[in-house]
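cache lookup: miss for this entity combination. No prior model stored, computing from scratch. Input as submitted by user K.M.:
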Amino acid sequence: MTDEYSIFALVVLLIVLALVVVRLTSLLAVAILAGAMSFILATVYTLLDAVDVAFTEAVVGAGISLTLMLAAISLTTRHEAPWRGRPAERVVALLVSLASGAGLLYATLDMPLLGDPAAPANLHVAARYIAESPASTGVPNMVTAILASYRGYDTLGEVAVIFTAGVCVIALLRHWREGKA
Amino acid sequence: MSEFILVRVVVKIMVPFILLFALYVQMHGDYGPGGGFQAGVVFATGIIVYTIVFGIRRAVEAVPMTAVMAMVCCGLILYAGTGFATMALGGEYLNYSVLDSADPVHGQHTGIIIIELGVGITVAGVLTAVFLVFAERRARR
């Protein structure tokens, strides 16, 4: 029960931080607060017992994203450029945000409740993974066993995607020898 | 290079521990939270922090661009190659059980450790490379 109250408090804090981020014009503060939001989200995942997801959120959201943002800020500027558009554009932007937010909220109504044992995700192969994975892979961390062994093809595909994205960025940005001049 | 001595000293002390923690996460992914992806991200973060504070020149002295490029490829080759190795040993693609003919469970465990290493090497390589090519481009301007 205390977990539920903690999660509720953390989510409220997350919303408050999001509103603060929208109002701030110092990009440095925005980047650091975005990192703090990732840490709060990681805490929420930990309270939900999803430690692997929490770890990923912490290293990607608060770690590498924040580092890359700080690097980008150190190369560009620390302050947001003032708004130069027409007021009508702001109204359209607000309407689009509200509409997509309402759409997402409406979609969550169809989702099964958190931890519902009758949810489709818990009825299919999950029971088999929990029962068999420690004995058949020798790996106590079920998440690792599923990602690396049961879903080995998917993970291979993900690594191939990361590889392809990396190679594309390198090919586009690297100064190759002939272009050095 | 950062002009603040405090930043330079703190980062110099922290970077080895960040890299060591990445290796811990890599090797401990089968028992605790984490694994190759998280380890690769932490490793790359360590190198990027070093680059921000000490500059691209000193960073590529420590981590040459060719080594980073090799990491990008080697991780994926290690992962995909494990699949071909299991095929050569008579199993299906990525069926690690055949890696240890006596004990299939040990084979599974071995396979998981090898492919997690592949994931870690590629992720660390890609993130480092993406940052370094940006920084290099900026430095040459």
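stored under new cache key. Residues 55 and 129 of chain B are 15 Å apart (CA to CA).
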